[in-house]
Amino acid sequence: MKFQPDRSDAQTITGYGPGWIAVNADRLTHSVIIGSNGERLDWECERFEDLSETHFSRLAELDAEVVIFGSGERGRFVSPAWLKPLMARHIGLETMDTHAACRTYNILAGEGRKVFAALLLTEA
User: Which of 3.40.190.10, 3.40.1230.10, 3.40.630.30, 3.40.50.920 is the CATH number of 13-119?
Assistant: First the structure.
């Protein structure tokens, strides 16, 4: 049996650390929404406490099967009421710390899924 490395055309998170991620070759230090088809959108929030229902309504407008929410340095959950627009469109949302969200996004994107990562990047 011949083994070949997995290859994906999806946008990939290639590194991360406190307050930053690298998407392909670009280092980002602000909160961002990225999609497996190459989408990259600024997400206007600097702290978990800055998040509002509007931020999650925006996620419901994406053409996604699932959204991975990276909530910062630790896993924190938003009000379930904020998720109603996502549920109405049958878009799943998984919440975890931002570094775990980066890893999970890469796995799902590599499988060819329509996945977005909404990543809260806080200053170190």
Answer: 3.40.1230.10
Question: For the whole model, what pTM was predicted?
Answer: 0.91
The per-residue pLDDT for range 1-55, each reduced to its tens digit, is 444 455 567 899 999 999 999 998 899 999 999 999 999 999 999 899 999 999 9
Contacts within 8 Å (CB) and 24+ apart, 1-10: 6/110, 8/109, 8/110, 8/112, 10/36, 10/37, 10/109, 10/110, 10/112
